[in-house]
């Protein structure tokens, strides 16, 4: 089935066809965090959504280049730097570090590139110069530069592509210098903001004098520099549709960067908000929880990730602690089913409670999961691995749901239906070790998209901000493979896995209770 997305640009569900003529690679940009404070879990709903989209596009076989910027200079940050009497780098560095700790605790794959606005000033200035040269931007008397909506429209371009704007009713104001404004205050917006006393040391030289970039131009410059003038997917929360993304289109297309007939972005995907009692979770309303708040209450990253991934991305939903409790219960059901499957298959994760595998070459039975069902050395036709490609039912039904505009709630429905069915079969001893292995392989395949970290391994994690949930699933899977190799006395393979983990920044400690992973 083809993958389909709801494209905010066309206001319809469309089949996803990448721009790459070879049909192989996909460029994905998601507006990243503004590092002025700890991110709240509403922010993380959007980042987990982007992680899900990236993982699913990879699952479908495309190679994704995922870019997420770090907004490290804008109005709010400058105010905080001033209030805290500190420097920009010191202030934003602290919150950026916290952001990425939380990001990983939630099981998100690191984007391939995480550009910082402050490292792109040269490219930002060059883009503004282009807009000025094309007559769609102008310098104001104070040395600020504004985007001219009237000039852009009179050049035949449409301002209001993501959001229908009725220029008959709206009376565009003269200029708006704040980065954030509502559509009622539509006006020429700032590309470059002339230095004022309150900016302190936060300024750069430019052809228009000292100053700093506006927020919207930062994303246009970073995304087009890295992914090219036209790329496939641009994501963010729904509050970014206007003005941020509308302004990004105006800037990027107004500069005429694209080949004729090409748009700045082909598919725009926007995630609905996480709410608290019907209102957007936000810093300004004070109704927010950070990840750290929830960890302090005893929840962990995998439970919070699960909760954020229960509703379809275009549906807003209310965050409640009861909801988190429900996530815990649901994951416990899943974990129990997986643990029993491992017992039947003759493998357990982490190695400390491994039962002797019942089949021909001992614990090597566990390798069917490691190899994802591919044949491996020493495999015989009697080996469970020989028939243990992922059991197709779950994977197919999961993919069918996800193809429909990433219908994750339906996909979870399929997962739990499978849990029910698997439990029923196991209760009547109707699952053979090869079948259990195949079911586990199916779960692994599905979980390459869901990104739910393994339960038992996560309890062994140490040395992380969230000691229970910061092991990425790839790392957990490597440890799993290493433990199985040791059981099979394949020490060469076990050492290779240990080295691989080391390269990725993790070390293994063997304790009487099992293997323990530590960050190096
Ligand atoms: P910021 O750090 O404020 O630039 O926001 C980062 C991302 O979080 C943006 O994509 C926002 O759209 C998104 N966001 C902010 N609040 C929420 C919320 N309550 N629910 C979902 N996403 C949100
Ligand atoms: Zn952005």
Describe the structure.
With 520 residues, the chain is of the alpha/beta class. It folds into three domains: 4-276, HUPs (Rossmann fold); 340-450, no CATH class; 459-519, no CATH class. The chain has 17 helices and 16 strands. It has helices at 41-59, 75-83, 88-105, 121-133, 149-154, 215-227, 241-254, 291-296, 301-308, 321-345, 367-370, 392-403, 408-427, 433-450, 455-459, 473-487, 491-503, and strands at 4-7, 12-15, 25-30, 63-68, 137-139, 145-147, 173-176, 187-194, 211-213, 231-237, 265-271, 274-276, 279-280, 317-318, 506-511, 514-519. The longest helix is centred in the middle third of the chain and has 25 residues, at 321-345. Residues 349-387 and 457-469 have low confidence and may be disordered. The structure holds adenosine monophosphate and zinc ion. The site of zinc ion has 3 residues, from loops.
């Amino acid at each position: 089935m083809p993958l389909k997305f709801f494209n905010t640009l066309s206001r319809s569900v469309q089949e996803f066809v990448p721009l790459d003529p070879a049909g192989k690679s996909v460029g994905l940009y998601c507006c990243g965090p503004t590092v002025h404070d700890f991110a709240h879990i509403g922010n993380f709903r959007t980042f987990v959504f982007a992680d899900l989209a990236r993982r699913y596009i990879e699952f479908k076989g495309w190679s994704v280049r995922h870019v997420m910027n770090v907004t490290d200079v804008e109005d709010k940050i400058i105010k905080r730097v001033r209030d805290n009497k500190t420097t920009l780098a010191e202030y934003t560095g602290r919150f950026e570090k916290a952001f990425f700790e939380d990001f990983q605790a939630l099981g998100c794959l690191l984007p391939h590139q995480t550009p910082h606005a402050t490292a792109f000033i040269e490219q930002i200035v060059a883009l503004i110069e282009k807009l000025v040269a094309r007559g769609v931007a102008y310098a104001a008397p104070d040395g600020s530069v504004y985007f001219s909506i009237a000039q852009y429209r009179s050049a035949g371009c449409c301002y209001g592509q993501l959001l229908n704007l009725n220029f008959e009713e709206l009376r565009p104001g003269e200029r708006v210098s704040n980065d954030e404004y509502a559509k009622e205050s539509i006006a020429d917006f700032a590309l470059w903001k002339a230095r004022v006393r309150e900016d302190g040391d936060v300024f750069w030289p430019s052809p228009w004098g000292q100053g700093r970039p506006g927020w919207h131009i930062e994303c246009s410059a970073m995304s087009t520099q890295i992914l090219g003038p036209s790329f496939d997917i641009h994501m963010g929360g729904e509050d970014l549709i206007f003005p941020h993304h509308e302004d990004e289109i105006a800037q990027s297309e107004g500069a005429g960067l694209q080949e004729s007939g090409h748009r700045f972005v082909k598919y725009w995907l926007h995630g609905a908000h996480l709410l608290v009692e019907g209102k957007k979770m936000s810093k300004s309303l004070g109704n927010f929880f950070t990840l750290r708040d929830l960890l302090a209450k005893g929840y962990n990253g995998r439970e919070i990730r699960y909760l954020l991934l229960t509703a379809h991305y275009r549906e807003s939903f209310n965050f409640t602690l009861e909801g988190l409790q429900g996530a815990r219960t649901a994951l416990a059901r899943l974990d129990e089913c997986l643990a029993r499957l491992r017992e039947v298959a003759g493998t357990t994760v982490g190695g400390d409670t491994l039962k002797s595998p019942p089949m021909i070459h001992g614990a090597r039975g566990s390798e069917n999961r490691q190899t994802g069902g591919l044949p491996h050395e020493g495999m015989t036709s009697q080996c469970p691995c020989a028939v243990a490609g992922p059991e197709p039912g779950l994977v197919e039904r999961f993919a069918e749901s996800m193809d429909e505009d990433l219908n994750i709630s339906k996909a979870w429905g399929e997962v739990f239906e499978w849990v029910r069915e698997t439990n029923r079969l196991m209760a009547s001893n109707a699952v053979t070790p090869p079948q259990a292995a195949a079911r586990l392989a199916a779960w692994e395949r599905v979980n390459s998209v869901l990104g739910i970290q393994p339960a038992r391994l996560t309890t062994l994690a140490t040395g992380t901000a969230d000691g229970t949930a910061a092991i990425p699933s790839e790392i957990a899977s490597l440890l799993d493979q290493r433990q199985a190799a040791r059981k099979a006395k394949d020490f060469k393979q076990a050492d290779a896995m240990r080295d691989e983990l080391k390269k990725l920044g993790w070390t293994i400690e063997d304790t009487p209770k099992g293997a323990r992973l530590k960050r190096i």
